[in-house]
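Bumping my old thread because nobody answered last time. Still need a sequence for this structure:
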């Protein structure tokens, strides 16, 4: 029987992480090993992990590596100690349903070498909205409603991308495609990893495998009329911190796709100019801050300044 291994990255969210660990311990079918990467270097997190026994392995990178670097660090240790396993990627703000691993370990698509991802909902029962289809240039996701409807279906759906929270993949596939790129720090790292997965196997969303997100992404929908034009924006609540990494890391994704710098600029700059225009029009963030982030992120992306800001 193949091992089932969870790899968790946590940072300064002890209460949420504790809920996740508790849900892992309550599984009908237990994980063989749980690797925890503590980006905070917290004694409380270390003590909590160690209190659960030897199957729980505490890893301390001694600095905040971000999500991408954290999974890179954790999987490096997994690859050193295991030949093959089902790997479950987990952020520290999710909890697992009691039957999560029972369903995962029996899933034929996973057994046959595919990558599978769960459906997600918030703890209040509302669906997590996520777009699984890519544009032709593969740099962006398409705007569509499949992400909403797919949570209500009862059969697997073939998708083109992943999010790390709950993504399940065989360790032998990770050996082939490599580790997550730590230069992302945050944002876009799972997007790029999904592109690599798609190169060698298929990705399926499995509605019956469900995880819960404890932190709800707040969607902001606004519209405004100006002369003959109507501006409309539907986006998650944005911060300059997130916006910087979102823009800059698109250049990392473009690099991984082999796109020239000129082509990347031609695609990325207009795309995010439209987005920041909407942010400025609807006064979500002060205009000066948005413009500064826009130029800084594009400059760093074009000049290959990656990693933590």
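Sorry it took so long. Here it is:
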């Amino acid at each position: 029987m193949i091992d089932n291994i969870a790899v968790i990255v946590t940072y300064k969210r002890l209460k949420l992480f504790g809920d996740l660990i508790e849900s892992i311990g309550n599984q009908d079918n237990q994980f063989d090993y749980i690797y925890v990467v503590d980006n905070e270097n917290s004694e409380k997190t270390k003590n909590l992990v160690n209190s659960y026994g030897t199957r729980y392995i505490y890893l301390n990178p001694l600095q905040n590596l971000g999500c991408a670097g954290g999974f890179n660090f954790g999987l490096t240790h997994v690859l050193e100690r295991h030949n093959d396993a089902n790997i479950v990627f987990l952020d520290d703000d999710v909890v697992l349903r009691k039957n999560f691993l029972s369903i995962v370990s029996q899933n034929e698509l996973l057994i046959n070498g595919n990558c599978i991802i769960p459906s997600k909902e918030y703890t209040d029962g509302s669906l997590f909205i996520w777009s699984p289809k890519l544009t032709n240039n593969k740099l962006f996701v398409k705007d569509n409603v499949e992400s909403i409807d797919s949570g209500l279906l009862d059969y697997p759906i073939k998708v083109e991308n992943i999010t790390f929270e709950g993504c399940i993949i065989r360790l032998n596939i990770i050996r082939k495609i490599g580790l997550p790129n730590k230069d992302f720090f945050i944002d876009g790292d799972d997007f790029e990893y999904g592109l690599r997965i798609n190169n060698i196997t298929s990705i399926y969303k499995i509605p019956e495998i469900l995880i819960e997100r404890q932190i709800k992404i707040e969607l902001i929908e606004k519209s405004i009329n100006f002369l003959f034009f109507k501006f409309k924006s539907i986006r998650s609540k944005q911060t300059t911190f997130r916006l910087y990494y979102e823009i800059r890391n698109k250049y990392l994704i473009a690099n991984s796709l082999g796109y020239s710098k000129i082509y990347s600029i031609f695609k990325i700059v207009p795309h995010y100019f439209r987005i920041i225009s909407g942010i400025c029009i609807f006064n979500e963030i002060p205009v000066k801050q948005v413009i500064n982030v826009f130029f800084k992120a594009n400059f760093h992306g074009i000049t290959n300044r990656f990693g933590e800001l």
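The longest strand covers residues 203-213. Let me know if any region looks off to you.
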